[in-house]
Write a structure and sequence with these properties.
There is one protein chain. With 587 residues, the protein is α/β, with parallel strands linked by helices. It is built from eleven helices and 21 strands. The protein has a ten-stranded mixed β-sheet, with helices on both faces. Strands 11, 12, 13, 15, 18, 20 and 21 form a seven-stranded antiparallel β-sheet that branches. Strands 14-19-16-17 form a four-stranded antiparallel β-sheet, with no helix packed on it.
Length: 587
């Protein structure tokens, strides 16, 4: 522990290049000994909330500080005191009090889990209790990963005089776009997570979520749209391009940075790695990934919590520019910028000959549409992407691309690298023989045979047609009518290398990432027959279906080496092994 304290003191003094190894070992040490509570004093309390429910809370105090004027670092979690609540203990090393609390309805706390509906009030009441303690400075900092981070975001829904800073790891500031992207039920994520986290309550909670498939008031529990003005403190966010919460992290960062209280705008920072919850995906990004991945956001939190400017030229927006998993691929490096780069929207059009081109279809082109049969009893299986318990990351899609219900459109080999950073939007013109159906879109990188071949997933999206207008009531389709719909594939930063090809695949299922659409137009909670649908995608001059890619230049994302990390591959591998040893397999 003394070694860790000295290491953190060195980090605070900005002697980072000499102590990268020490910092890694420090994090490992904290992870290993946290179960034994390496503190001089630990207190276990049941804190009473405003409605009488008591929440189990652990206070761990630093060894080397007087018991006065101490700031607390709070992690509220549904995972229990021995899980990722331990993140708070890292800050003991810098003299903070670590506070770990079980959310209501989880582990040793009373009440029922509310799917974050009580998050704002419970967090406020807990901080008010902390601020009244004789040792307290009256300030509370929150940290949290995954579900804990969602709880943090809810704190902004109330004006909180105690909240001094925040650090959110792989979290979301919104609920509906995460649980129902494009209006489609995110089956695997919701059902698996609830069943593992609150197994006794899960059946009722899953039913509750299914009853609220519309973007209505129920989802205000995880919606900060009207509350960003309550942000009066600095923050650090850590996201991942293949993370389950990516778009919610990005929305939260934009709100904190640009719509906070006026004097606190531009006081938020974000780090985006490729992975997020997709920890097993590191093998797909062999270059420059691990070195700095954990240390950089951790270091930024210490600077932020102590109100110090970051060193090493770390700018507010730092992210990993992804590329193919090959030795000669372009990309696969870090960049650090003042803001996300401005991009040029480039449309790539679906063509009747199954090609993809920046030229819109000609009026004289043949094959103006393609029809396929979608049978809900035989769905396209999920392979990779932004998943939790399912396979994740840039996996090869060729096992499903030969199906009759998957339409594939592929560009010619690129004559120069194409660099993307920003949102991915597909605009489809579609019709169906049913009154409701889904349309899915995947963007992939087709490797040449010299690079091993394969069609590797960059991002995917979905639209459930009865929710295409984003209202609180469904809008059925009229069979045979052509509709223009937008499909969000979230965001990316990716380099398509020279010689590779860009591919778009369109279908009507991606199961169990998304729940099946039986094509009958009925609510999720109402059983009905499966309807086999004839779905049509149009690619003509009149109906030019396309995907819009956020194209930038390499010069807009210059390389950045975080925290003076070792340049030698062998050293990076050793650091990777140490960090892998932490086993941060976030629930």
């Amino acid at each position: 522990l003394l070694f860790c304290v000295l290491t953190m003191k060195m980090m605070m003094m900005k002697i980072k290049s000499a102590c990268v190894w020490a910092a890694v070992l420090c994090v490992v040490s904290v992870s290993c000994v946290s179960a034994r509570r390496p503190v001089s004093n630990s207190v276990e309390v049941m804190i009473e909330m405003r409605d009488g429910v008591k929440l189990h809370t652990l206070f761990d105090f630093p060894l080397v500080h007087e018991m006065k004027n101490l700031t607390a670092v709070l992690d509220r979690s549904p995972y229990g005191e021995s899980a990722i609540e331990r993140i708070a203990d890292i800050y003991l090393l810098a003299g903070f009090v670590a506070v770990r609390q079980d959310m209501r309805g989880t582990h040793k706390s009373e009440g029922n889990f509310t799917v974050w509906a009580s998050g704002a009030d419970d967090g406020y009441d807990t901080m008010a209790f902390i601020a009244k303690q004789p040792w307290s400075s009256g300030k509370v900092i929150t940290v949290g990963a995954s579900a804990d981070g969602l709880a943090e975001f809810t704190q902004v829904q109330v004006k909180n005089p105690f909240l001094a800073a925040q650090a959110m790891v792989f979290a979301s500031s919104v609920g509906y776009p995460i649980m129902y992207p494009g209006g489609a039920f995110r089956k695997s994520l919701i059902e698996t997570w609830l069943n593992k986290t609150v197994p006794k309550q899960a059946p009722a909670l899953i039913q509750q979520v299914r009853e609220h498939e519309a973007p209505g008031p129920y989802w205000n529990r995880l919606n900060l749209t009207d509350y960003y003005g309550n942000v009066h403190f600095p923050s650090v966010m850590w996201a991942g391009w293949y993370d389950i919460f990516l778009v919610g992290n990005l929305i939260g960062f934009d709100g904190y940075r640009n719509r906070a209280a006026p004097e606190w705008r531009n006081h938020s920072r974000i780090v985006i790695d490729p992975l997020g919850h997709c920890q097993k995906g590191a093998k797909y990004f062999p270059k420059n990934l691990i070195a700095g991945r954990t240390l950089l956001p951790l270091y930024l939190t210490f600077d932020t919590f102590e109100n110090k400017p970051p060193a090493d030229h770390v700018l507010p927006v730092t992210f990993y520019v992804m590329g193919a998993n090959t030795k000669t691929a372009q990309g696969n490096y870090w960049t650090s910028l003042e803001d996300f780069p401005d991009f040029k929207p480039q449309a790539w059009y679906l063509q009747g000959d199954n090609t993809l081109s920046t030229t819109a279809p000609a009026a004289s082109a043949a094959n103006k549409s393609t029809t396929y049969t979608y049978d809900p009893s035989n769905p396209v299986q999920s392979i990779g992407g932004n998943n939790l318990e399912l396979s994740c990351g840039p996996l090869d899609q060729t096992p499903v691309e030969s199906r009759q219900d998957v339409l594939v459109f592929t560009s010619a080999p690129l004559t120069a690298a194409t660099v993307l950073t920003g949102p991915l939007i597909a605009t489809l013109y579609v019709s169906s023989s049913a009154n409701d159906t889904d349309f899915t879109v995947k963007l992939t990188d087709v490797y040449p045979s010299a690079d091993g071949g394969g069609s590797h997933l960059i991002q995917d999206g979905i639209v459930r047609m009865r929710w295409r207008e984003h209202g609180e009531t469904p809008t059925p389709m009229t069979p045979g009518t052509v509709y223009e719909v937008e499909v969000s594939l979230w965001n990316t930063s990716y380099v398509f290398s020279e010689g590779h090809q860009i591919r778009v695949a369109v279908s009507s299922s991606n199961y169990p990432r998304y729940g099946l659409n039986p094509n009958n137009g009925l609510p999720l909670t109402q059983k009905g027959p499966n309807v086999v649908a004839k779905n049509t995608v149009y690619h003509s001059a009149q109906y030019p279906s396309h995907i819009t890619l956020p194209t930038i230049e390499f010069a807009q994302v210059p390389p950045f080496k975080p925290l003076n990390t070792p340049a030698k591959d062998g050293e990076a591998d050793k650091i990777a092994a140490l960090i892998e040893g932490l086993n941060l397999d976030l629930p």
